[in-house]
Amino acid sequence: QVQLVESGGGSVQAGGSLRLSCAASNTFYCLGWFRQAPGKEREWVADIGVSGNTNYADSVKGRFTISRDNANRLLLLQMDSLKPEDTAMYYCAARSCYSSNYIHWGQGTQVTVSS
Questions:
Q1: 68-102, pLDDT tens digit by residue?
Q2: Strand-pair partners of 36
Q3: 79: β partners
Q4: What is the distance between the alpha carbons of residues 92 and 16, in angstroms, rounded to a whole number?
Q5: pLDDT tens digits along 3-21
Q6: pLDDT for position 49
Q7: At the N or C end, where does the chain have fewer CB atoms within 10 A?
Q8: What is the per-residue burial (b if ≥16 Cβ within 10 Å, else e) of 17-56?
């Protein structure tokens, strides 16, 4: 079982940066970031394995960086060169590294990017 609590969302102008954090009660999981914009399906943004291997959606590759600080039980998402289309509720999530299904979710943090 793992509890996840996101923070760091806010409002920023296009081209700006934000860093999201997710405090995890247990770091023995593969972790990911997802987002959901109003009226749209939730979409995967990035994920990171226990050893630090990363994957990114094409829409954020080169602009977002996912990382984890296992000592402090934190999942991070550095978001640079933000675009209005990045506006969404962002969620961190956890899964067993032996499964593709994310079963633990945070409550979300809102990111709004204005043009």
A1: 998 999 999 999 999 999 999 999 999 999 999 99
A2: 89
A3: 18, 64
A4: 21
A5: 999 999 999 999 999 999 9
A6: 94
A7: N
A8: ebebbbebeebebbbbbbbeeeeeeeeebbbbeeeeeeeb
Q: pLDDT, tens digit, for every residue of 19-71?
A: 999 999 987 899 999 999 999 999 999 999 998 999 999 999 999 999 999 89
Give me the pLDDT at residue 32, please.
97
SS (H, E, C) the chain: CCCEEEECCEEEECCCCEEEEEEECCCCCEEEEEEECCCCCCEEEEEECCCCCEEECCCCCCCEEEEEEHHHCEEEEEECCCCHHHCEEEEEEEECCCCCCCCEECCCEEEEEEC
Neighbours of 109 (CB within 10 A): 20
Q: Which residue has the tokens 């923070």?
A: 7
Alpha-carbon distances of 33 from 56, 82, 115, rounded to whole Å: 10, 16, 23
- Encoding tokens for residue 26? 């247990």
Report whether 24 contacts 73 (CB < 8 A).
yes
